Amino acid sequence: MKKLRIVAVMLILFALPIVTGGGGCPDEAVEDECSWDGDCGNNNPPKLYDLAYSVNGASYDTNPPSIYATDYILIAASYSDDEGNITGGQLFLYDDNGNVTYTADINVELGCSSNDTGQRFGYVLSGQEQPLAAGYHNVEMYWTDVCGFASNKVQGSFYVY
């Protein structure tokens, strides 16, 4: 797996991009399903499906969690991208007020789909770096691919004690 360059912005929350699961298209059969020919004119946007949450390194769960202010929570999306050209794109995170509070370059090889690779990509909100604000929080995420085509937005929520 390629090393992940960590880019962080400290506003209300502290976030780090993170990838989970295996790396890239795992075998030649899956590689052939990645159809991008380098021409952005023949490109389709990536699709995001569900958000899943991992609190303090626990297994993923798609149910919105309740956490403590000093916990860290990984919020990651499953995806598909016919062309397999998400690498080089960006992740965008919206806060409770609908403002973009975080962006990160997607600089790891993700492959064509979560189904093929078992990967999710997302971000870590770390209460260990800066305590998370108490109450309900809504998050919204979308990605762009290397051509700048935007995925759909996926929403989630969590509660901080």
Give your account of this protein's structure.
- The protein is mainly β.
- Strand 5 (90-94) and strand 6 (100-105) form a beta hairpin.
- The chain has helices at residues 28-33, 114-117, and strands at 15-20, 47-55, 66-67, 72-80, 90-94, 100-105, 120-126, 135-144, 154-160.
- Residues 1-15 and 22-32 have low confidence and may be disordered.
- The protein has a 5-stranded mixed β-sheet with strand order 3-9-8-5-6, with no helix packed on it.
Short description:
This protein has 161 residues and is mostly beta strands. Helices cover 6% and strands 38% of the residues.
Low-confidence stretches: 1-15, 22-32
CATH architecture classification: Distorted Sandwich
CATH superfamily: Coagulation Factor XIII, subunit A, domain 1
The CATH topology label is: Coagulation Factor XIII, Chain A, domain 1
Give, in spatial order, the strands making up the sheet with the most strands.
3-9-8-5-6
Shape: elongated
Topology, number of strands: 9
If helices are DSSP runs of H or I spanning 4 or more residues, what is the number of helices? 2
Assigned CATH class: Mainly Beta
The proportion of residues forming helix, as a percent range, comes to under 10%
Distance between the termini: 36 Å
Task: Tally the structural domains.
Answer: 1
User: How confident is the prediction overall: mean pLDDT?
Assistant: 79
SSE run:
EHEEEEEHEEE
Instruction: Please state the structural category.
Output: mainly beta
